[in-house]
Each structure stands twice: as C-alpha cells, then as structure tokens.
C-alpha cells in the first residue's frame, strides 16, 4: 500500500468567505503532511477599450500602469488574508489573462501541486447554466487531485482540527475507479478512517418503442446485483487495504442521487472519487458523475484524475496556443507608423 505524499497545496482565493475557510482546511492538511501552501488569485480584468471603436495604431495608449497597480493591490490583499489565516509563509500568486480555472490548473502544473483545495458555490438550475462552476471546471481539467470543500463538514465540532472518520468511495469497477480506491486507502490510512465502497446498479430507462414488450425488471435488477457483487469481491481481493477498515454497499438508483443520499444517511465526512476525464463533445454528451457529485454532495469531495499525464499535455498544448495568439496580437498592435493594417489583421489584434 502506497504512502500518500502531499508536498504542495494550491488554494484559489476570490476573497469570498468560503474561499478563506478553505485556507483553514488546507492549513490542517499542510500541517499533517508537511506541505507548502500556495495561495492564488485570478484577476478578471475587462478593459474599457473592449466597448470602444478600434484605435488607430499610431495613437499611443497603454493600460499597463493600471494593470500593475491592480496586481499589486490584489497581492497585498492576498498577503493580508494569508497573515490573518495564520499562513504568512504561504506563497502568494496573482494570475490573469485567462479563465480562472485555466490559470489555476496551469499553476498547479507549474509548481507542481499535489492537491488543489477550494470551495464550491453550489449553484444549481439556471444559475449553474449561466454562471457555471469554477470548481467543476478545475475538476474537469486539473492534472492533480482536487479537494472541493463544502461548509464545515470535515471539521470537528469545535473547528480545531480536520476530522475524517468515514470516506465514501463510489466504484464502477473501471480502471480509473480503481485508482480512486487506491488514493482513498492511502488517505484513510493517514487519518485512521474507514472506507465504504458503494456501487450503483442502475439499469437506466427500460422501455419499448411499441409499448408491447414485457420486461422482468426485478429479474434484471437481481442479475445486475449479482454481477456487481461478484465484481466487488474481485475488486476487494485485488486491492491491499492493509489496516484500513472497509465495507461494501450497493444501491439500485441513479449513481449521483444515490451516492449523495448514501453519504448523507451514513454521515460521510468525505467522498473520494475518480473522473474518467471526458472532454470536448464526449463530455457534453456523457457528462461526468464526479462533477455532478461535486455539485450536489452534502460533504466535501476529493476528485482524483484518472489520466493526469494526458491532462498535463492538454494544458501545455493550450498554453502554447495562447502564447502564440498573444504574441501575434502584440506584434500587430505595434506595427510601424504608416503601416496599413488589413481588416483581417485588425480582427486578430482586437482584444477578445
């Protein structure tokens, strides 16, 4: 059984109350693992020039002093928060120039980070559709594990320590879920917690286009449960739990709904799950159970990426594309006096 090693923890800060509370959890984890804390704030700056007509290239105009002043102000605020939370030694970074989730994921790769700790605003319904969730996007793209905190669910009653007694681990018997089980075992060993492996034998919707077919639903559910129990026994035999106590459980409903309900009914302090890492059109069609659990779970959720190398490569690729685009814009905006810019050039150089 591998020993869990966490040396660098990144905590994204937007100066909200929830993000400041996440520092306290990161501090307790850092103390236990002997890790360093890195606080990061992403400045989202919209220039007034975005709403103005294009300016001729020969007219000198610069917003650099304004941006530098804003960056220095944000850095002072970040250091102030670090001091008030008792992590004065934490490294503070002010980022900008890309969506927050992208900047945080790249910072985590650069450090490199072993864990990202952040809260979620828990938006659902139309608010989630229009505003989205930075936490869910980081879960989708990060190359390192992400701990999404929710309230004080993982703190003791007096708030003095980070308490984890029961860890819920959803499994679907895939290779990536096995990786999640391995991480959960190492985490449980560190905190002396017990693990509950849960599998949802969800059959989905059973219907007939003609409405005349007859299905033996109880029989199908029984067969699915029997297969799941066999696979669970194989999983337990193939994993070394060591001294970590564990138990298994099964549900018959939708994975997300049943996982969240099971966590609430059994007072789980933490859910540790892996993600298949679907992106692009596949992610739109299939979605991610891990991201939905992050959105609806009653407790904190730790998401382990199943393909960290692939995600790291994707981040490096997107970073290269962004660098080239910015370089082209700067080159075009600094055209010599008297040079006529084509319509296509002005379109490329215009701020997005």
How are the SSEs placed, and which strands pair?
Layout: E1 8-12, H1 17-33, E2 36-43, H2 64-84, E3 91-96, H3 100-110, E4 115-119, H4 125-131, H5 134-141, E5 146-149, E6 166-170, H6 175-191, E7 194-200, H7 217-238, E8 246-251, H8 255-265, E9 270-275, H9 280-286, H10 289-296, E10 300-305, H11 308-333, H12 343-349
Parallel strand pairs: 1-2, 1-4, 2-3, 4-5, 6-7, 6-9, 7-8, 9-10
Antiparallel strand pairs: 5-10
Helix pairs in contact: 3-5, 3-11, 5-10, 8-10, 11-12
Summarize the entry for a quick read:
The protein has 352 residues and is of the alpha/beta class. It has 12 helices and 10 strands. It has helices at 17-33, 64-84, 100-110, 125-131, 134-141, 175-191, 217-238, 255-265, 280-286, 289-296, 308-333, 343-349; strands at 8-12, 36-43, 91-96, 115-119, 146-149, 166-170, 194-200, 246-251, 270-275, 300-305.
Question: Could you describe the 3D structure shown?
Answer:
The protein has 352 residues and is α/β, with parallel strands linked by helices. It is built from twelve helices and ten strands. Helix 5 (134-141) runs antiparallel to helix 10 (289-296), helix 8 (255-265) packs across helix 10 and helix 11 crosses helix 12 (343-349). The protein is elongated, with a radius of gyration of 24 Å. The protein starts with 7 loop residues before the first strand and ends with a helix. The relative contact order is 0.13.
């Amino acid at each position: 059984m591998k020993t869990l090693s966490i040396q660098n923890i990144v905590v994204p800060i937007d100066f909200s109350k929830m993000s400041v509370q996440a520092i306290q959890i990161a501090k307790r984890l850092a103390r236990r693992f002997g890790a360093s804390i890195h606080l990061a704030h992403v400045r989202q700056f919209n220039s007034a020039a975005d709403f103005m007509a294009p300016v001729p290239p020969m007219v000198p105009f610069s917003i650099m002093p304004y941006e530098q002043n804003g960056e220095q102000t944000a850095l002072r605020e970040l250091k102030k928060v670090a001091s008030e939370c008792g992590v004065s030694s934490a490294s503070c970074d002010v980022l900008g120039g890309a969506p927050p989730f992208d900047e945080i994921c790249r910072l985590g790769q650069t450090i490199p980070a072993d864990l990202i700790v952040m809260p979620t605003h828990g938006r659902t319904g139309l608010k989630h559709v229009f505003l989205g969730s930075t936490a869910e996007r980081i879960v989708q793209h990060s190359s390192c594990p992400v701990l999404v905190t929710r309230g004080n669910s993982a703190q003791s009653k007096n708030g003095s320590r980070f308490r984890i007694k029961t860890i819920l681990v959803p499994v679907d018997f895939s290779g990536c879920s096995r990786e999640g089980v391995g991480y959960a075992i190492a985490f449980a060993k560190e905190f002396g917690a017990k693990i509950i492996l849960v599998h949802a034998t969800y059959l989905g919707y059973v219907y007939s286009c003609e409405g005349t077919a007859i299905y033996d639903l109880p029989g199908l559910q029984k067969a699915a449960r029997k297969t799941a129990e066999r696979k669970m026994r194989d999983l337990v035999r193939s994993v070394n739990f060591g001294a970590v106590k564990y138990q298994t459980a099964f549900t018959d409903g939708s994975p997300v709904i049943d996982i969240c309900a099971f966590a609430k009914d059994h007072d789980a302090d933490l859910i540790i799950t892996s993600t298949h890492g679907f992106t692009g059109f596949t992610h739109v069609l299939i979605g991610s159970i891990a991201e939905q659990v992050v959105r609806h779970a009653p407790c904190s959720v730790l998401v382990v990426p199943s393909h960290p190398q692939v995600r790291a490569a994707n981040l490096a690729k997107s970073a290269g594309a962004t660098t080239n685009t910015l370089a082209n814009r700067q080159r075009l905006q600094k055209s010599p006096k008297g040079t006529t810019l084509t319509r296509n050039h002005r379109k490329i150089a215009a701020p997005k």
